[in-house]
Write a sequence for this structure.
């Protein structure tokens, strides 16, 4: 079973049986045998929150949403090498394991799974999951093979952890759509929930890669969310899809230190934009050497242009 409904519960809406653990009692496992031993003791609904570590308030929101839909939360922390391409930031991707475990303890996580690469992949490359045509568009067109790595590691985590549900952030929207499709089409029987993007005070989507930005670059990067909101505002005023894109593009084009990869308006499943109704506005751009993505839901009430830049 899968679900397209986002999880939006605030912390006050969490189940009353939440157990807050401290760093000394948090259970952390690194091998399949250790994972199986602890997993077998968990009764009720288990919800998985897959992460690559460097946890922040966006991950807190995922854990809290997971508590709202399940009895036990398992967080995986694994910097997955198969989703990084040549020249990408695998080696310098932020790793903060001590702080990560502290955050998990604060959020009442039942178990943290922190495997090494050989635990996940064994000695060879093994079988990979192909995301089809959608995995080759947008992020997939820029990062060839990225989504095959993502889907493969998520499928492995689903098999190893055996959750009834899993929670992902809407910030990585194409990833969310593909994981939902994988769970549904491969009959993995994991309900996949999306959680709205958590943002900083400047509107910027929280991301582990934001650590790469200096103060000036952060000001430039904040233009991404401002541009998306300009598009959403245009839609609220009754503009069609072409005008929504134009409003966002105008703001992006006014920032010379930002290099645009794409700006696109789609339907909620990343197909062609509708003439009216729910849609998604997505952007990817580079600030210096840092590549950032963001998106927002849009409701169209006029004829949509469905144009991609």
């Amino acid at each position: 079973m899968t679900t397209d409904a986002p999880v939006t519960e605030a912390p006050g809406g969490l189940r009353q049986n939440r157990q807050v653990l401290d760093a000394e009692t948090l259970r952390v496992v690194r091998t399949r045998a250790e994972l199986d031993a602890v997993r077998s003791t968990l009764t009720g609904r288990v919800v998985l929150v897959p992460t690559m570590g460097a946890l922040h308030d966006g991950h807190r929101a995922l854990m809290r949403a997971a508590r709202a839909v399940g009895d036990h939360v398992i967080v995986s922390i694994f910097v997955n090498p198969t989703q990084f391409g040549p020249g990408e930031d695998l080696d310098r991707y932020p790793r903060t394991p001590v702080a990560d475990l502290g955050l998990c303890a604060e959020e009442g996580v039942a178990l943290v799974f922190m495997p090494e690469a050989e635990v996940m992949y064994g000695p060879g490359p093994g079988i990979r999951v192909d995301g089809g045509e959608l995995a080759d568009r947008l992020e997939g067109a820029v990062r060839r093979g990225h989504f095959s790595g993502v889907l493969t590691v998520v499928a492995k985590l689903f098999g190893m952890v055996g959750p009834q549900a899993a929670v992902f952030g809407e910030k990585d929207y194409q990833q969310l759509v593909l994981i939902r499709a994988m769970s549904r089409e491969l009959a993995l029987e994991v309900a996949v929930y999306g959680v709205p993007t958590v943002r900083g005070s400047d509107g910027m989507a929280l991301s582990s890669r934001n650590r790469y930005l200096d103060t000036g670059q952060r000001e430039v990067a904040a233009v991404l969310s401002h541009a998306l909101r300009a598009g959403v505002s245009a839609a609220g005023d009754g503009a069609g899809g072409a005008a929504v894109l134009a409003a966002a593009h105008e703001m992006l084009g006014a920032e010379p230190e930002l290099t645009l990869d794409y700006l696109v308006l789609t339907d909620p499943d990343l197909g062609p934009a509708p003439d009216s109704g729910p849609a998604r506005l997505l952007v990817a751009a580079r600030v210096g050497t840092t590549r950032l993505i963001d998106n927002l839901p849009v409701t169209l009430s006029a004829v949509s242009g469905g144009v991609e830049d």
